[in-house]
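Schema walk-through. Below, the input block comes first and the output block second. Nothing else is stored per chain. Lengths vary across the set, and this one has 274 residues.
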Amino acid sequence: MLHRLAAFTTDPQGGNPAGVWVGEALPDAATMQRIAAEVGYSETAFVAPPQGSDRLIRYYSPQAEVSFCGHATIATGVVLGELSGEGTYRLATTVGEVPVNVYRRGDQLEAALTSVEPSYEPADSALVDSALAALHWSRGDLDAAISPVRAYGGAWHLVLAVSSLDRLNRLKYDFEALKEVMLQAGLTTLQLVHREDWHLFHARNPFPVGGVVEDPATGAAAAALGGYLRDAGLVSAPTTLNIRQGEAMGRPSRLTVEIPAIGGIIVSGTAVKI
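--- output ---
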């Protein structure tokens, strides 16, 4: 059965749409790719029945399989909560186990995923320059307090922080040029952020490698950002930050990122049926 939800919002017109397919067994790869293309959302999650205490899960964009997708995981958690009740579901992804805690707050189900162990590495200067050229940005637009990095929380993202929210809001990039840069670098999205303060970030996430101009909410990139900020010593853990995303697209999203002292990053939010 295919479910359609908007993640990281309480409004079906906001957040990031995700498909959640639940069946007796995972379809073959070609079938999952076809279904994801027909659904047309940035990602569709495919979930198999329990194996022990785990469920198998795979993620597909309209054009390719994705190693991990945060917003589709939040949507999956809410679907599993509706079908099987509150509790912790351990999802077996291609990059490792991702626990998802599902609970009810008032009359709304919420889900909190714990990412695999995050990591980061300095971004190669040529990669940064190529990405900036495709974005029509310059190094003068960047926030000197947050260096460009490749960050990982289940998928790789290039983190670029800009000092001006206006610069972030006026995003208009060369789709094919950025897609080529990302394919060569093995990137899933770009995590473009503006730091309002160390507890509130605004984000935008181009996703041309998935055939999508932009994601309105990106949980995997939020986890990667949280891991980078902690491990680079830019924030003192444990701490919590909030990410506002999708506003410039007309699909406002709210992501809560809990950063423990060690281990995976916890990204939480709601999801509602479309």
